[in-house]
Amino acid sequence: MKVRIKFRKYGAMKFVGHLDVLRYFQKLFRRADIDNEFTKGFSPHQIMTFAAPLGVGLTSDAEYLDIQLLSSDSPEVMLARMNTASTEGVMMIDFHPLLEREENMRLVTAMSLVSTADYLVSLKDGFNLGEIRTQSEFMKLFTCFMNEKEIIINKKTKNSEKTVDIRPMITLTAYERVEYENLLKAVESDDDLTNTIEQNISELKEQNPVDIMNKPLSVADIYENGIRLYLQMDTGSVANLKPELVIEAFCNYYKLPFEEFAWQVHRLELYSRNTETGKLISLDQLDR
Amino acid sequence: MRKLALSDEILLMVDKPARYIGGEVNMQVKNPAEVEIRFCMCFPDVYEIGMSHLGIQIIYDMINRREDTYCERVYSPWTDMDKLMREKNILLFALESQEPLKNFDFLGITLQYEMCYTNICQVLDLSGIPIYAKDRTDEHPIVIGGGPCSYNPEPIADFFDFFYIGEGETSYDQLLDVYKECKRSGKSRKEYLEMIAGIEGMYVPSLYDVTYNDDKTIKSILPNHPAAPARVKKQVEMNLSQTFYPTKPVVPFIKATQDRVVLEIQRGCIRGCRFCQAGMIYRPTRERDLEYLKKCAFEMLKSTGYEEISLSSLSSSDYSSLQELVNFLIDEFGTKGVNISLPSLRIDAFALDVMSKVQDVRKSSLTFAPEAGTQRLRDVINKGLTEEAILGGAMKAFQSGWNKVKLYFMLGLPTETEEDMEGIAVLTDRIAREYYTIPKEERNGKISINTSASFFVPKPFTPFQWCKMNTGEEYITKARFVRDKMNEQLNRKSIKYNWHEAKLTVLEGVMARGDRKISKVIYDAYRSGCLYDSWTEYFNYDKWQKAFEDNGIDIEFYNSRERSLDELFPWDFIDIGVTKEFLRKEYRRAMEEKVTPNCRQVCYNCGAKVFGDGNCPAINKDQTMEVTLDEGEN
User: Fold this and answer.
1) Nearest by CB to A20, which of B1, B253, B301?
2) pTM here?
């Protein structure tokens, strides 16, 4: 049975890199007595795939992990078991078996489905963005920046450096949570994502011994200076843009100092784009 | 949410920030405001090494069982973090509470190898604790040393308030209870140290005076306070099946060197190899009960989620119930994808059977530690391994499909001749020849042998503590001699040969048998930038050499001198149970190339039975013969 797990990563866990998160889950599954399916061969390991690995320093409301199980209990029980075996900074918020796909589709992994991601990018307290002091000033400048027809950046890879227009890769910008959610409705398919999470969380509240529910809807850190930005952009194997690059381009555009550690990037959601309708569907709504 | 001591910016600038965040699975969480005693355990090396150490996990778990004490952890910040902390004046902090060590009541530092001594200075310095114990006031934590290197604490005596000699299980409760009393009644640091000096096993260096002879050897080590005993007796936990075991060890986020459950099956070793300090200081050999171990293994795998369990001991094959234990582990966990690793196992039929069940034959290699190249020299060092046993074991393994072999030797052992050195190459080649006697169609491709030579360091409390050590140049000459002999062998193309850092070994020699004068050298070396000396990329011999010169300390005095049999050693005030008389006799037997049978065959009354009130747990009443190794026999 193929199962998709959605989890949050926050707090000090943001300093634990992707490979160590993988090792963390291998151990977590053992502690929680999860009946994982193993690969065949002399050194068997648990079958698991992560969607779009998160960089060190980033936090997230929406990390996805696909695993294969030989047996399972109800999603509520499984979530409770995993959260009990987890530590602060990794919280499971959804567990659902995936529909069995056609034989030839079985190799589809969470990774290859991802087309789009939402981020909240916040200026950390203690850092300055040139003379900009308030969110409204920032909003004004960023909106102008986004009105450019093209935003050309130098993208460095291991072997080469090339210029890319990143403007078309940014598909949504917002400055407030409500605004962001309203804009989402236009690009998302009918399933109401926010409601589902809220529903999951209220279910969790009942069954989960770990006190996760005093937590807000998002585990993103909130900063006093209030300068922040909601971004939706291409992510995944086809086209991949990092929020840091957008901020760097913005700073360069206005000749503002770009400080590498000044911004907290928080992932809000990962989506797959329906090739026919062009609508987005979050990974936890896919294949249910 | 836990607050971190370091800003995001700093953590994102360094390699592996997870070294500094704490919060690992099974970390102890307490409210520091609700405890009376703050204790911090330190392993003075990088996090991944320190987290692999069982001893700290045992003490961490044990102290945290006390409600009045919060035991936390700290490791040496890696060089990148060290630099940032100095630049930005950040105080070193404990991983759990992320609070500065400076505010703690105790800092316990484990001393696992000599080459971590500059890291002790680093931890104290970065914590804002004076490096010299004499400079500390009632405001500073009490700094305790323990672990194998505390059996000669003198080179670092100036840095410690006291040393705990022996196994931690016995006396920490008493030390903490006395501390609590002192704190309540407003007693000073000095008064506390005087009180605990009377507890068996505690060595308070400031309460002892050392005098020297004209030839720089030690004249006397005497207490200068009535509370301090003339001899400090090693602490031993005699019942290892009814004591603390950390069934919920802390599981690091990043891969530690020892990334697995460690199950300590016994302490001590019955073998008595004459170069081996552990084999003497951990006497008497004590086993843990099979049922106790089964229970521990089960609970630890469950609480950590590790996919591997490793048996730990000095010589696993000597554990009486090894077969039952291993079969239990295989039956119980083997099917759940848990790997079982069995280091220090003698290669026999049982071992091969087990290894073929638990390891991938294609990937794993056979390891032998003959230590010396000829039977004569193996007799001198009392290494019971014979060439027939090595070749026989190797052959059985080859027939089961193995084709990788690792061999460990030592160069510079007492009485070593060119023949012994050449023997390293000859024995290596002989193993390869043995392999090629198997018909081509039955063997598994080419053999690959990795032979590695380390340099012998005479250690305190061993029969070789009197011996002279080679110089760095002599070691290199010997290592090259062996290389040339390797190149003359028939199967040279299948052999890889390497040797250790000779200059590091020279320093290790000084630290191992040094006296109190060495503290200043370590301090100066640290001040001149020495750190992480056991890491070749950071080892700087020139700086060390300068520190020795500046202090007028002659390395030759410590290393290149054959000590007289009646010389008083810096560590002689420590009583490990095993007597100096026994070590002296063993030294003589070594020179006579006489083998001493193991503790289960014959008891030579080494002295360790004192811990069992005359009954040694290593003795098997039906098999062991008791003999007093007296002068007449020599």
Assistant:
1) B253
2) 0.93
Average pLDDT (B580-601) is: 96
Task: Name the residue in chain B with its Cα closest to that of A86.
Answer: B25
From-to residues of CATH 3.30.70.580 in chain A: 2-113
Q: What is the mean pLDDT of residues B568-587?
A: 97
Cβ–Cβ below 8 Å for B253 and A16: yes
Tell if the CB–CB gap between A56 and B8 is shorter than 8 Å.
no
Beta bridge partners of B72: B40
Domain ranges of chain B: 8-233
A216-230 pLDDT, tens digit each: 578 999 999 999 999
Helices B387-399 and B418-435, axial angle in degrees (round to 10): 20
d(CA B510, CA B514): 5
Q: State the architecture of A2-113 in CATH terms.
A: 2-Layer Sandwich (3.30)
| Integer Cα distance of A29 and B238 in angstroms | 37
Q: What distance in Å separates residue B344's CA from the closest CA in chain A?
A: 23
Contact B12 A261 (CB under 8 A): yes
Instruction: Judge whether residue B559 has pLDDT over 70.
Output: yes
Q: Over chain B, what is the mean pLDDT?
A: 94
Confidence of residue B626 (pLDDT cuts 50, 70, 90): confident
* Residue of chain B whose alpha carbon sits nearest to that of A14: B18
Q: What mean pLDDT comes out for the span A176-197?
A: 76
Nearest to A43 among B21, B305, B360 (CB): B360
Position of tokens 């000859």? B426
Q: Collect contacts of A176-182 with beta carbons under 8 A, ≥24 apart.
A: A176/A230, A177/A230, A179/A230, A180/A118, A180/A230
ipTM of this complex: 0.91
